[in-house]
Amino acid sequence: MSGDDANTNTNNIVLHNLKFLDLSCSKLTKTPNFNQIPNLERLNLGFCLDLLEVHTSVGALQRLVYLSLSGCSYLEHLPESLGNLVCLKELNVSYCTIKQLPQTIGNLRNLVLLNLTYCHNLKSLPNTITRLNRLETLDLYHCLNLEELPENLDSLECLENLIASSTGVKHLPDAVTRLKCLKTLDLHHFLSIKMPLNLSSVCFDTEVSQNLVYLILSCCIQLKEFPESLGSLTNLSKLDLSHNVIQELPSSIGNLTKLVHLNLTYCQNLKRLPATTSRLKSLKTIQLHGCGSLECLPEDIEQIEDLENLIVSSTSITSLPNTIRRCKCLKMLNVHDCKSLSYLPPALGDIQSLEVLRASSSAIMAIPDSICISKSLKILDFRGCSNLHKLPAYLSNIESLEEIYISGTNVAQLPHSIDGYKEP
């Protein structure tokens, strides 16, 4: 057999059994011809930094379910033949320089996940994308030049997660309110959103409101108010309104009985929490760090039965409600940098679940003696509390205590009961 015949035979070999091909982080400038591997199911071309072209034969991979081109930072175009991948379920083109998606993408009827994060050059989505009626996650995070979403977005009947944070989108289509399966709506750093009617409709629409679990509206700098219809989001588990200029929350927030995480970090104009906050029986974490105008917490805070983490650092609170002693699940209390807070509740030690107490750089003048009956306390942090002159006499009674921080205080000596205790 001649050398030419041997080469011809080699080139015609079809690898019927090859299911997975990982070419990630290679020096390819162009993908190979895929005609000889027709049964491939997973193809990873991630972080091929020199890749400029995907061969049109990629469309021959009729059984492909996963394709990653993530991090191919010089890849500007995807072939139209991509639309032939009828079994494809996951397509990851994050961190690419593509300017548009092929119109044929609408043929990927089995696609479940489309990841376009950090596609900075992407300016629009083809209308055909709304034909992806099995799509569950559309991730557009940090597509800075993407200016609009398709008006008929509600055609994505199975869409559960819409992540449009840090994009250039100027308008939230009304169709969002008709996404009946939507569970996550992430509009972090959605700079143009003020309080449009359609956001109110997301809360008011019965089907949408009953499915939504995560609502992220952090850094929406023009968002100044929230509708009373917020209380219709009865299955909401996480609400993130951090870094906004809102002055108050609607009283209907008390209807969010499944809310677990409430993030209001750096809402500097927020003066108080509505009294109805105490009805949030499932709430485990309240983040209020940097709410500089906040002066008090609800007096009946103990009614938040599952509260585990209370973060009120860098606020203007002058006192903590005495009822906090009945927060039986509280594990972490953070009042760091509370310059107007001089005293802690005298019965703070009644919180037998408390593990971490951080009051560093605050105006605290004394640590309540009741802290010595704590059963779970591990960390006691009063660094930089210049008004603090002594520690409780029986601090050594806290057998669980692991760390004490009192640097930068005016504590002249340790109590005799812990003479042998060493500060880490």
Give the uncertain stretches in residue-range form. Answer: 1-9
What is the overall number of helices? 3
The run of helices and strands is HEEEEEEEEHHEEEEEEEEE
Provide the β-strand percentage band: 5-15%
* Cα distance spanning the termini: 78 Å
Name the helicity range. under 10%
Compute the average pLDDT: 91
What's the β-strand tally? Answer: 17
Rg is 28 Å
> Tell me about the biggest sheet?
17 strands, parallel
The chain-level structural class is mainly beta
The dominant shape is elongated
Q: Can you give a write-up of this model?
A:
5% of the residues lie in helices and 12% in strands. The chain is mainly beta and 424 residues long. The protein is elongated, with a radius of gyration of 28 Å. The chain has a 17-stranded parallel beta sheet, with no helix packed on it. Keywords: Leucine-rich repeat, Repeat. InterPro entries: Leu-rich_rpt (IPR001611), Leu-rich_rpt_typical-subtyp (IPR003591), LRR-SigEffector_domain (IPR050715), LRR_dom_sf (IPR032675), LRR_R13L4/SHOC2-like (IPR055414). Pfam families: LRR_14 (PF23598). Residues 30-142, 212-290 form the Disease resistance R13L4/SHOC-2-like LRR domain.
